[in-house]
């Protein structure tokens, strides 16, 4: 198996592991249909892009090396999920997405990005995973990390 194939297999396993993003996508799909679910998946994928860029440019190292930054991200993630959960309890699964048309999908997209970006486990996972598959002899490490992140986004 090549390193890129190994990475693709690892990414598939990670993608199949349930987490907050799964819950968000399933909730939107059940409450608002397939289109809303696809928008939620797109938002989660864009969140992965944010994590990829953060790792590629070294920003995620701050989270790993600073207990304060990691704690702040954890608190932001918990607060965001609590906000979404409380809003859902108060207004049902259509909350935040009950506006007709494009604005409804924009809300779903932004929420899905937020669910993924504020998940500290994703940041640490990418920080641990991506560099293992970068081969300095194969060219620019930044380009390789961005390519690996793109593969994960596709999966």
Number of strands: 0
Based on secondary structure, the structural category is mainly alpha
Low-confidence stretches: none
Regarding quaternary structure, what we see is single chain
Number of helices: 8
Distance between the termini: 18 Å
Note the main sheet: none
What is the radius of gyration? 17 Å
Tell the overall outline.
globular
Helix content: over 70%
| SSE string, helices as H and strands as E | HHHHHHHH
Percent in strands: under 5%
Average pLDDT works out at: 86
Provide a descriptive summary of the structure in words.
It is globular and about 55 Å long. It has 8 helices and no strands. With 155 residues, the chain is mostly helical. The relative contact order is 0.20. α3 (34-56) packs across α6. The mean pLDDT is 86.
């Amino acid at each position: 198996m090549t390193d890129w194939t190994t990475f693709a297999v690892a990414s598939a396993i990670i993608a199949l592991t349930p987490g907050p993003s799964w819950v968000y996508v399933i909730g939107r799909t059940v409450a608002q249909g397939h289109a809303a679910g696809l928008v939620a998946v797109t938002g989660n994928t864009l969140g992965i892009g944010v994590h990829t860029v953060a790792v590629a440019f070294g920003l995620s190292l701050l989270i790993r090396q600073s207990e304060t930054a990691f704690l702040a991200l954890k608190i932001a993630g918990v607060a965001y999920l609590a906000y979404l959960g409380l809003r859902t309890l108060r207004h049902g699964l259509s909350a935040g997405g009950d506006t007709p048309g494009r604005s409804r999908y924009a809300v779903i997209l932004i929420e899905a990005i937020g669910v993924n970006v504020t998940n500290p486990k994703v940041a640490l996972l990418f920080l641990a995973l991506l560099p293992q598959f970068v081969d300095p002899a194969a060219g620019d490490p930044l380009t390789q990390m961005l390519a690996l992140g793109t593969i994960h986004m596709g999966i």
